[in-house]
Amino acid sequence: MSITSKSRVFVKRECSARFEFGGKSYDNVPVLNLGPDGCRIQVPLAFVGGMVSDSRLEGLELISQALSMGSTGAKVIRVDSAEAAQSGLVQAELQFTDAPAAYRVNVLNYVNTMAQAKPHCVAHDLIGMP
Q1: d(CA 71, CA 111)
Q2: Is the four-CA dihedral 124, 67, 14, 92 of positive or negative sign?
Q3: Domain of residue 57, CATH code
Q4: Tens digits of residue pLDDT in 88-120
Q5: Can you give the residue range of the structural domain that contains 45?
Q6: pTM of the predicted structure, to 2 decimals
Q7: 17-60 pLDDT tens trace
Q8: Could you tell me if 73 and 60 are in contact, meaning their C-beta atoms sit under 8 angstroms apart?
Q9: Cβ-count burial of 61 within 10 angstroms (0-12 exposed, 13-18 middle, 19+ buried)?
Q10: Contact 60/40 with Cβ under 8 angstroms?
């Protein structure tokens, strides 16, 4: 299986995130998919006032038993609120902004491990990030 910098692996049950946005701290935020350049998170609509494309998240930490690393900044690429009326949840696609190379390599190694264990959970270029 060919994993690229734009590949994503679905990790909803294996990974969560914490970050700061708009002066508030968010913890235990589900990460739906993850790749070396970014991830997709799911947050309650009531918590994301003002989260739009190009919004900045600070101190983004990915939390998983198999993934231990520091924090990075992230930029919101897209906010998907199509199901918000029914579910009350919004999905946001994030791109890591100031992650050191070692951070991206660590995530890529994690994605590769997950892809080998669960090849049916891999998608490529989900958001068309540059």
Answers
A1: 18
A2: negative
A3: 2.40.10.220
A4: 888 999 999 988 888 888 888 888 887 787 766
A5: 21-118
A6: 0.83
A7: 999 998 899 999 999 988 888 899 998 888 777 888 899 999 99
A8: yes
A9: middle
A10: no
